[in-house]
Design a protein that fits this description.
Blueprint lengths: L2 E3 L5 H12 L7 E5 L2 H5 L7 E4 L5 H8 L4 E4 L8 H14 L4 E6 L11 H13 L3 E7 L7 H10 L1 E4 L11 H12 L8 E4 L7 H12 L4 E4 L2 H10 L4 H15 L9 H6 L6 H11 L1
Parallel strand pairs: 1-2, 1-4, 2-3, 4-5, 5-6, 6-8, 7-9
Helix pairs in contact: 1-7, 3-4, 4-5, 8-12, 9-10
Bound molecules: NADP nicotinamide-adenine-dinucleotide phosphate (NAP).
The site of NADP nicotinamide-adenine-dinucleotide phosphate has 23 residues, from helix 1.
């Protein structure tokens, strides 16, 4: 089996490469792809092959994908350019004769009002229209997205959000990375769309309780309305686009778009998903 992994210099990609090796894929059968040669070189010690390729560079993608059987297409981090970038990777996969693609998408990407869903929906449509065998992993949020909130809570004594009573069924990056490896190394997966989420979901009060336990002092949930949230973010120096994005995402959470705990992810990886508090503990210990 030979597997090419895009986004391998990223946080999820690195973990996916480690889990592929842990699940028996020979390092020499893995091609780690990223834009940055120096970051790719950090993977040399694991024995994997590496290839530098930007999603905009068709020739580099062709060279990177040549001879591979499976492509792990980790969604790009360049919001707004992703559908085109992923389209380039899909075209290159077809040209290279790749049989199968595993793509990391977003929860209910085909039907969700989540502000990040449209690019994932477009990518899923390109994949489904291609001759490739497709497995879609619709990842819910990473626990790690909230490490900075822990830092802010440590400073201010509060977790501030406009999520209302909305819940997030997050899991750790490592959980999602292990699911990639589980799917790639199993023959029973192909043509499926998996909605991956944590075993449990949490809300703002739960976050504050977890932060209280981790930090060892009281943290409150400061629940604010969207308009007030926007003003607070603006006055903290966030640009208009970023502030609007944060408030819109909180609105998506308030609307329940990231709720929906599930045992699909834990079933794939064969263990419970990582609770939010464990990720926060790890972050606090590392800071
Ligand atoms: N579910 C969630 O909560 C959540 C949260 C954040 C992101 N995401 C999505 O999940 C993906 C993986 O997450 P992550 O934490 O691993 O993100 P990350 O650490 O930012 O990694 C993103 C990867 O995409 C690569 N990339 C970006 N633009 C590229 C381009 N033009 N050509 C080639 N490669 C390019 C980056 O390469 P370089 O190293 O060269 O920059 C990096 O390897 C993200 O990219 C995003 O789509 C999901």
């Amino acid at each position: 089996m030979s597997v090419v992994v895009t986004g391998a210099t990223g946080q999820l990609g690195r973990l996916a490469v480690s889990h592929l090796i842990a699940r028996g894929v020979a390092p020499a059968d893995i091609v780690a792809v990223g834009r940055n040669g120096e970051r790719l070189a950090e993977l040399d010690a694991s024995g994997v092959r590496t290839a530098v390729a930007d999603y905009s560079d068709a020739a580099a993608l062709d060279a990177a994908f040549a001879g591979a059987e499976t492509l792990v297409l980790i969604s790009s981090s360049e919001v707004g350019q992703r559908a085109a970038q992923h389209g380039n990777a899909i075209d290159a996969a077809v040209r290279a004769g790749i049989r199968r693609v595993v793509y990391t998408s977003a929860p209910h990407a085909n039907s969700s009002a989540l502000i990040l869903a449209p690019e994932h929906k477009a990518t899923e449509e390109l994949l489904q229209a291609s001759p490739l065998e497709v497995t879609v992993l619709r990842n819910n949020w990473y626990n790690e997205n909230y490490e900075s909130s822990l830092g802010q809570a440590a400073q201010s004594g509060a977790y501030l959000a406009s999520t209302g009573q909305g819940r997030v069924a997050s899991a750790s990056r490592d959980d999602y990375a292990e699911a990639i490896a589980a799917v790639v190394t199993s023959d029973v997966h192909g043509g499926e769309v998996y909605e991956l989420a944590g075993d449990t979901a949490w809300d703002g009060e739960d976050f504050a309780a977890a932060a209280t336990e981790v930090l060892g002092r009281p943290i409150i949930f400061r629940s604010v309305e969207p308009g007030e949230h926007l003003e607070i973010l603006r006055s903290a120096g966030l640009d208009e686009g970023t502030a609007g994005f944060v408030v819109a995402l909180d609105g998506n959470i308030r609307d329940g778009l990231l709720d929906g705990p599930s045992d699909v992810l834990s079933g794939l990886i064969g263990r419970p998903t990582t609770p939010l508090i464990d990720t926060l503990r790890k972050a606090a210990a590392a800071s």
